[in-house]
Design brief:
Blueprint: E1 12-20, E2 32-41, E3 45-52, E4 55-62, H1 63-68
């Protein structure tokens, strides 16, 4: 499963908006929306060797948890 083992971050959904036309500040009549489709935002997960209760385990952890120091790398 694509989820962080520490914070539980999973995928999020959003929209991808397709536009056509020329922007007003570039001399056009403005951009028009021609379509909206659903897209996914996947978490940036890394497989990391982590110290958990004195034992080394390999977990999928998001980069935000690694940078913030919530995870202690085994090394």
């Amino acid at each position: 499963m694509r989820a962080c083992a520490i914070c539980g971050k999973t995928l999020a959904f959003g929209n991808q908006i397709s536009r056509r036309g020329l922007a007003k500040k570039k001399g056009g009549v403005g951009k028009k929306i021609t379509g909206v489709s659903v897209r996914k935002f996947l978490p940036n997960l890394q497989r990391v060797k982590v110290l958990v209760d004195g034992a080394v385990k390999r977990l999928k952890v998001c980069t935000r948890c690694i940078k913030s120091g919530r995870v202690r790398k085994a090394g």
